[in-house]
Amino acid sequence: MGMPLPGGKLPNDLLHEFLNQFRFEDPSVLIKPGVGEDTAAVDVQADEVLVLKSDPITFAIEAIGSYAVLVNANDIATAGAAPRWFLSTLMFPVGTSAFSIQRVMEELSRVCRQCGITLCGGHTEITDAVSRPVVTGMMAGTIARSQLIHKQNIKPGDRILLTKGVAVEGTAIIAREFGERLKQLGVAEGDIAKCRRFLDHISVLKEAAIAGDVEGVSAMHDVTEGGLATALEELSIAGGCRIRIMMEQIPIYRETAKICGLLKLDPLGLIGSGSLIISCRQYSSDILQEKLAAEKIPVAVIGEVREAGQGIEAVRNRQPSPWPRFEADEITRLF
User: Which CATH class is domain 151-334?
Assistant: First the structure.
């Protein structure tokens, strides 16, 4: 198991052994993953909408399986849907051991079980096309057609809420991938360990489910690559409305601010799965905040939807403020 593997598909005996650890209890999965199976098949009811998402994990190595499941599941949840089926393509550099591959597959299995998701297919290969592990996930979920949440539903006057704080995922990745650099910059081991545990908070499934049940929620958007700054620009474009943001209301964790300051990164441009942007009608804002607070999910009102158009209007203490834009995620500056 510890020996390096040559290039090519994962050997069938290892694939069979690793797949035996998965439980397939979802009766809607008609064709399950296995040696010789090239497709997955699921049964979808006629009154449901199938919501699809695909995203690769390229910045993280440690806990890459967790990231792959949660990042894809988060986006499904922003449509109000329940993530149900997951397919993964795993690519490992030549020389990777079977033990390392098994560890990633075990992680995929564990996180899928925790989220009530069935891993129903995929592909695993050892290849010189990559220099480090890459996991590409494809998630599918379902929702009743009448309950689908679409970003084009936002309207002027809607409130913009943000759960937790910016750069949750980025904080975790930096602590896990660049812990030694942080130590050299004087960050205490206890603080690094706390930042590593930010990984436990990159799921937005709980807050998305709460928001989806509140009347007047018009859109949700997961903060991913490019950080909050990019995510809000994307929401503005998708919704066809300008958005005003109150800079002083944006929540930033103390730990995030500290490591970004030391590494000279802007937290607003740092990858941020774990934060959910919610647009809702004004009359729903207080109700939604109360429901999130009851579940101990931090939330802040950071802005409002303005007139038709595109772009962000930033203010700080009611005075115009520049809005940052990022050609690439801030974390890429560390690689």
Answer: alpha beta
Each domain of the chain, given as residue ranges in start order, spans 8-147, 151-334
Task: Give pTM, 2 decimals.
Answer: 0.87
Answer for the pair 312, 236: CB distance below 8 angstroms, yes or no: yes
Residues for the chain: how many in total?
Answer: 335
Asked if 175 and 198 count as a contact pair (C-beta separation under 8 A), the reply is yes
User: What CATH number was assigned to the domain covering residues 8-147?
Assistant: 3.30.1330.10
Q: Under 8 Å CB-to-CB from 86, ≥6 apart: which residues?
A: 69, 72, 73, 108, 112, 117, 118, 119, 120, 137, 138, 139, 140
Cα→Cα distances 168→172, 226, 281, Å = 7, 13, 26
Residue type, 8: G
Q: Do the beta carbons of residue 267 and residue 252 sit within 8 Å?
A: yes
Strand runs labelled E in 34-158: 41-42, 48-57, 82-92, 118-126, 134-144
Q: Where are the alpha helices (DSSP H) in the chain?
A: 12-19, 64-77, 98-115, 168-177, 179-184, 189-196, 205-212, 227-239, 254-263, 282-294
49-85: pLDDT as tens digits: 888 888 899 887 889 999 999 999 999 999 999 999 9
